[in-house]
Amino acid sequence: MLKVFWQEPDAPRDSRIIGSCGGQPQLNVGDHCPACLKCGALMPYFFTVDVSDVLPGKLLSLFYCISCTGNTVPEFPATPVSSPISGAEAQEVQKDYRLHLHSAEPRSADVFSPLIHRPIFGKTPRSNRYQFSKIGGEPTKFWGAEDGNIHKLLLRIRESDDVRLARSSDSPKQSAYKLFDGDPDFIEQEHYILVNGIPVYIFATHDEQAAFLVTGRF
């Protein structure tokens, strides 16, 4: 298990770089980013983290729509986590985001990333009961043993981490669907947030060929 630190000032001196926000992924997705299946916009590249502590040789990369996701929650696989979730099912529900579980590979072209390029840091904890962002280990509140989960935890981001990913000055601001006429405008200006800032749990599919995302419960 690794603690994850999203900002360099928060990372201990003995931590190491385990990924990055922005920049370019070690991934070949073709000539352009994947398209959002909800609004049609191209989904830019957000980050990559090394999850080889869970699956040797594997990286986890995220593409995420910034045109419609400011206040939405992504669709979950219909299969309960106590039963095998396949790579095909995981990919089918990824409409406004796209997860890639992959080895390092050369890319054929650069992809768009609106984020300021920054490293992500990790450190092995002294205790397995770490409460914040982490790679591997067990979920400490939801989606764990009480749910009979048979899938490996790749990355957890807790709400208390308040992960806000800084955008470059010339990048578009994050937008959101208004579910109802009276909904307030999405006001985040300088950063991007994931799934409205609520807890995120990313697991490997049972065949370990893909990844899927679920969120904290209400």
Question: What is the gist of this entry?
Answer:
This protein is 3% helix and 25% strand.
Structure characterization notes:
The chain is an all-beta fold and 218 residues long. It has one domain. The protein is built from 1 helix and 12 strands; from the N terminus they run ββββαββββββββ. The strands form 3 sheets. Strands 5-4-3-2-6-1-7 form a 7-stranded antiparallel beta sheet, with no helix packed on it. β11 and β12 form a beta hairpin. The longest helix has 6 residues. The protein is globular. It starts with a strand and ends with a strand.
Strand-helix topology:
Elements: E1 2-5, E2 16-21, E3 45-50, E4 59-64, H1 87-92, E5 97-102, E6 118-123, E7 134-135, E8 153-157, E9 165-166, E10 191-192, E11 200-204, E12 211-215
Antiparallel strand pairs: 1-6, 1-7, 2-3, 2-6, 3-4, 4-5, 8-11, 9-10, 11-12
